[in-house]
Amino acid sequence: MPLLPRLRHLARNLLFRARAEHDLDDELRAYVELLTEEKRRAGLPPAAARRAALLEVGGMEQVKEEVRDARAGAWLHGVAQDLRYGARALARERGFTIAVVLTLALGIGATTAILGVVDAVLLRPLPYADAGRLVALLHEGHSPVAPANYLDWRERTRTFAAMGAAEAWGPALAGDGPPEQVTAMHLTGTMFPMLGVRPMLGRTFGPGEDEPGRDHVVVLGHGLWQRRFGGRASVVGETIRLDGEPYTVIGVMPPTFGFAPFWITDAELWAPLSLAPRAADRGAQSLRVFARLADGATLAQARGDVAGVTAALERELPGTNRDVRVRPLLELAVGDVRPALLVLLAAVSLVLLIACANVAHLLLARGVARRRELAVRSVLGATRRRTVRQLLTESLLLAAVGGAGGVLLAAGAVRALAVLGPAFVPRIGTARVDARVLAAAAAVTLLTGLVFGVLPALRAARPDLADAFREGGRGASGGVQRRRLRAALVVSEFALAIVLLVGAGLLARSFVALRAVDPGFDARGVVLATVSTAGSAHAEPAQRAAFFEELARRAATLPGVAAASVVNHVPLAGDVWGTRYHPEGEAAVPHEDWPRATWRVAMPDYFRTMGIALRRGRGFGPQDRADAPAVAVVNEALAAAAWPGEDPVGRRLTLDDSSWITVVGVVADVAQDAWGAAPQPELYRPYAQDATYREEPGNVFGTLTLVLRADCAPGAACDATALAPAVRRLVSAMDAGVAVSRLQAMERVVADATGRPRFYLLLLGAFAAIALALAAVGIYGITSYGVSHRRREIGIRIALGAAPWRVVGLLVAQAMALALVGAAVGAAGALLLTRLMAGLLYGVGATDPATFVGVALLLGGVALVATVIPAARAARTDPLEALRAE
Fold first, then answer.
1. Which terminus of the chain, N or C, has fewer Cβ atoms within 10 Å?
2. Exposed, middle or buried by CB within 10 Å (0-12, 13-18, 19+), for 835?
3. Under 8 Å between Cβ of 709 and 564
4. Are 569 and 703 in contact (CB under 8 A)?
5. DSSP secondary structure string, 181-228?
6. How does pLDDT run across 79-99, given as a tens digit for each residue?
7. For 754-848, where are the alpha helices, taking DSSP H only?
8. CA 746 to chain centroid
9. What are the two backbone dihedrals, phi and then psi, of residue 659, each rounded to the nearest 5 degrees?
10. Strands 582-583 and 631-635: what pairing?
């Protein structure tokens, strides 16, 4: 008998025996039925006959359990056998195994790293008790609240179990070293109990300790405790001086505590907030209000409750309770990074899919090489299910090894992001590869193994026996189905790479546009220093005004300083305080309906020091004294809004409906709190004429920013921070009790302001580069493999007289047709991705044609090179050798 029929006969016998072993349950059931029939013929009733038959075989359930146990044992044995066989096979093919593992490790590692960041930033609960029920009540969802409004809300709302308020504070800490301005907060006594966080040492303050007349107490943050007090436990009970006042340390918070998670996230000291003196104040909006939902209350109910209360207050006191929103605390903590992280997650998923496409092609190619082996297994009785299980086991084994390598890569990447991650990404410092992320990585690994393994396994499990046993076994290796699979892989890799590269290209163009933005000032050579007189000999309003004026005068004479001035808040690096204004001659409207403008207080020479261009009129000078006519300088945006098409110099406006201020100059618009944002109205007042800064008590008005411009030659390197030691010596010589902090170059401020788009560009650009490399390798590998299996066809064409260049052209045309299809599919996918990216872009549209065309041409060039090289090599083949090889 010929070999093939004998193998088929043997396979049928083996298959019959295998089926017989797996039909024990059916045979047992048939045997019980026969026994039951015999018992009935013996005269037993049907039910009794059934029971007797079951007892005779030892109980149906027991036997079935034994059968199930035997099958489970056989299945586990089979899986173990598959694992051993797969491991040996992969160990023999080291090159193939290493290529697959490295590809998977790269894709799974990048995906796991981003999953770790997404988990830390978006998914993990805030570190407070039952954090999901914490909310914030703010004007427009982000703006602060007046004290009287907070007190009314606390009294009238019914859907909150507790409510508290927080206020920014920047006290000067004296003792145990030079004075230091600390980032701090005042909290109502209800805040710590509402958060439910225990201190590491001592206690926190509670209700009642925020009442007037109580002794000053303070809770330290872990970082300040370590840095300033050496981490000694005895600090609890000690007295420290803040703004010259004694405070008793009552506790130290754990290192994981931070509050509030979306605002002043670097606060490291907390003290009670007393609102009794300001209980009727509805003008100074300085509080952030937080609350915990009552048991059984929903967010929707709380919003309705607050809407009703604020509507009633607005009717009673117009203009005081407009647009108050209730937002979950986690939503505020996450901020606007959610879309960006989702884009990055989508991008890294595309990288993983490209890796899967590459591995799928390698497995398909390996399946062709193994088709004789699989055919022999088939005729020896191996079922298709058994073959698929073997191949899937090998795929999952590859995925597991690649996943392990990916987790190691992810652990290093997440650790680097946690340490070096930008401050604007909330909670990125807590990112880590923990059990949650490992579980996600395991799921990604399993899914990856199935994605790239199922199709090759199903394809290889149906071998063409006639082709497999033909001499050489190459006859049908380039069949229609395989060509279609290769074409689908090329199209998918091309499309996925298009999507990623378009996203990276749009971010790159956006970043270039942002870097080209004119901020309205010249940052080169400018250094900033925050100076606080609180707690010093110059803390009183009269002394501090003279101190700052003298400081500006002396700083201008320091060696290497070209100009110096003082301002309350510099652009991009300080708070943005606003005021309402009303131009003279405009129709009278209620004060709450007046337009708003950013309000800055500056000393003479500020505009020259910052490099802000003067468009009309003049800046501030020595003549703008406290007893001189009130003047102001406005920016172009305010001038256009208040006096469109007119010269504003000499025009007047009012800030408080009681006194008029004359505009003496117009300056260029400057970036205020966001790089690249549209210009907003801005108004500058001379420090000497601003009664608030000269006369109001408190450390808020005793803290100003010293601005110096280094004397740098044009085009030469300029290190403005070299002036820092001279600034410290100058301030210490004037008053050793004055705190100097936040010494930084303005160029560093600008770099931080553009850090967000740069961070997103670097990550997405890295993913795009990986995708491009994987796609290039994959397209080259698939094309080269396809061409190598068309050598017979190519040989026949050349033997029949086709010129080699025509053969190359044919192959290139076919490959470029696939690239064109991939470009069309990728462009459609890119349009979906760029919708998510719209909020990340600046100066470029989400459907920018230049980016789409440029990316398509880039990948088209990659596809062209990947096709020409193997096609040219195949075209040089001797036709006789190609025909003999087949």
1. N
2. exposed
3. yes
4. no
5. E--EEEE-TTHHHHHT---SEE----TTTTSTTSPPEEEE-HHHHHHH
6. 677 677 777 777 777 777 888
7. 755-788, 791-799, 804-837
8. 26
9. -140, 150
10. unpaired
